[in-house]
Design brief:
The structure holds 2 protein chains of 2 kinds.
Chain A: E1 5-8, H1 12-19, E2 24-27, H2 33-38, E3 47-50, E4 60-63, E5 66-70, H3 75-79, H4 82-87, H5 89-95, H6 101-104, H7 109-114, H8 122-128, E6 132-137, E7 140-145, E8 150-152, E9 155-156, E10 162-170, E11 175-181, E12 192-200, E13 204-211, E14 218-219, H9 221-228, H10 235-248, H11 259-277
Parallel strand pairs in A: 1-3, 2-3
Antiparallel strand pairs in A: 4-5, 5-10, 6-7, 6-10, 8-9, 11-12, 12-13, 13-14
Chain B: E1 6-12, E2 15-21, H1 27-33, E3 53-56, E4 59-62, E5 76-78, H2 87-98, H3 108-121, H4 127-133, H5 144-158
Parallel strand pairs in B: 1-5
Antiparallel strand pairs in B: 1-2, 3-4, 3-5
Helix pairs in contact in B: 2-3, 2-5
The chains are: A alpha+beta, B alpha+beta.
């Protein structure tokens, strides 16, 4: 027998009410959560609230000048969406590098963000697209800029009784790159990952963010400003931006990689990304 | 301790079925224990190896990561057994045999499922596409070359 209560949520409000109880967790794709449960990481787990059946979370839609991505959208759903491919290639590329095909058919973007791993691949992409996180809860809704959503590894601003409803992105055409380094080319957790988005509204804008180089994803404003103010985006400029990014990274050594390697590769990844984009 | 078995209903290999599961039971454990369908295997139990691959609504997933209780009545699960009479699957299996792609065999049900999904969507995959499609499946007997050759053979034979 198990002590865990299982609740199949039929609407968002009842899901939130159930999640107010201590020890209750939301589950959708399960690709992170089930492994953690099996590894005994939640000894105080009392209940699982299944939100995978909440259809309103499973859509990508436009709303005036925004695109809303439901938190229940799977990585493959995002990777194969034509609108996202067209407007936000950085997110599409990030989603298509998560795990392998089987994982991408289950893993959701809401789960990737709520799990708050410093290595979560969609997070730097959401940073550079300046996404807002829509949170719903028993006491109403709130909107949190993605860069303010994370507190520390595994910890977010979500309160008990709250779930992520979705992410909103400003509907503007961007170009972008997402690069990651893992133990192998496919199906690997990032040793480091880096996202770049750029768009032009009369002048060039750059956004750069990287994961696995700090407790939460880092945005690299100094390098962005440097690129935006560059007279000419030539090899020297790219090299300088790479240096800045490398200096901004403050990684640790852990089971996946070392501090020195990550720091150096931050610059290398930026160089590779910019070379493709410029 | 409370009895918290959950009644679920879903489509399994073409038939609407009902069963009872505990909250933490995975689809893989349910297939093996409740239905005695043992083609899908538990290799790693954490979504790394793909030995547990089944189709959920025509898409390959790691059945070791999906909680059975989260299945909906409209969900359609197909395990390798569900493809027993399937021409494409039989073709793939035959090619695996002919190419000697099977060593210990533990990864093969998952490999054939991933191959099936590939050939359904890409009848003429090149080497890169084959590797890509099988990147979520690990063989610890180091038999990838023969497996890739088998997928290629299955594809060629379909033309």
């Amino acid at each position: 027998m198990s002590n865990v209560e299982f609740i199949k949520a039929t609407d968002i409000q009842s899901a939130c009410t159930a999640l107010k109880n201590p020890g209750y967790m939301a589950v959708s794709g399960g690709s992170d959560l089930v492994v953690k449960i099996r590894n005994g990481m939640y000894p105080n787990l009392k209940g699982l609230v299944d939100i995978s059946g909440l259809n309103q979370l499973n859509h990508i839609r436009t709303d005036e000048n925004k695109v809303i991505i439901g938190s229940g959208c799977t990585m493959n759903q995002i990777a194969s969406d034509h609108l996202l491919q067209d407007y936000f290639p950085v997110l599409v590329k990030a989603a298509s590098t998560v795990g392998a095909l089987q994982i991408r058919n289950s893993a959701t973007i809401g789960g990737n963000v709520a799990n708050a791993s410093p290595a979560g691949d969609t997070i730097p992409a959401l940073y550079v697209l300046e996404a807002n996180v829509f949170v719903v809860g028993c006491n109403g809704n709130r909107k949190i800029p993605i860069a303010e959503f994370f507190i520390s590894p595994g910890k977010t601003k979500l309160e008990p009784g709250e779930i992520i409803e979705g992410f909103s992105l400003l509907l503007r055409k961007t170009r972008g790159e997402f690069l990651k380094l893992g133990e192998r080319r496919a199906h690997a957790i990032s040793k480091i990952n880096l996202a770049v988005a750029t768009w032009n509204d009369g002048r060039d804008h750059f956004r750069i963010a990287m994961g696995s180089v700090a407790p939460t994803v880092l945005r690299c404003k100094e390098a962005e400003e440097y690129l935006e103010n560059c007279e000419k985006l030539d090899e020297a400029a790219i090299a300088r931006a790479a240096e800045i990014v490398s200096d901004t990274a403050r990684p640790i050594s852990d089971l996946r990689s070392t501090k020195a390697y990550r720091k150096q590769m931050a610059g290398v990844l930026l160089k590779r990304a910019l070379t493709k984009l410029i | 301790m409370q009895n918290n078995l959950i009644k679920i209903s879903f489509k399994l290999n073409g038939n609407q079925v009902e069963t009872e599961v505990l909250p933490e039971l995975t689809v893989l454990e349910m297939l093996r224990r409740n239905f005695r369908l043992t083609a899908a295997k538990e290799g790693c139990g954490k979504g790394e190896c793909g030995a547990c691959t089944v189709m959920l609504n025509d898409k390959p997933i790691n059945s070791c990561l999906k909680l059975a209780a989260t299945l909906n009545s409209s969900d359609q699960v197909i395990s390798v057994e569900g493809f027993n009479e399937d021409k494409l699957m039989n073709n793939i299996q035959q090619a695996f045999v002919e190419e000697g792609a099977v060593q210990c065999g533990f990864c093969i049900p998952g490999m054939t499922m991933a191959s099936y999904h590939l050939l359904q969507h890409n009848p003429k995959p090149d080497e890169h596409a084959i590797k890509q499609a099988l990147s979520g499946n690990i063989c610890r007997c180091t038999g990838y070359r023969k497996i890739e050759a088998a997928v290629k053979k299955a594809a060629d034979r379909r033309q």
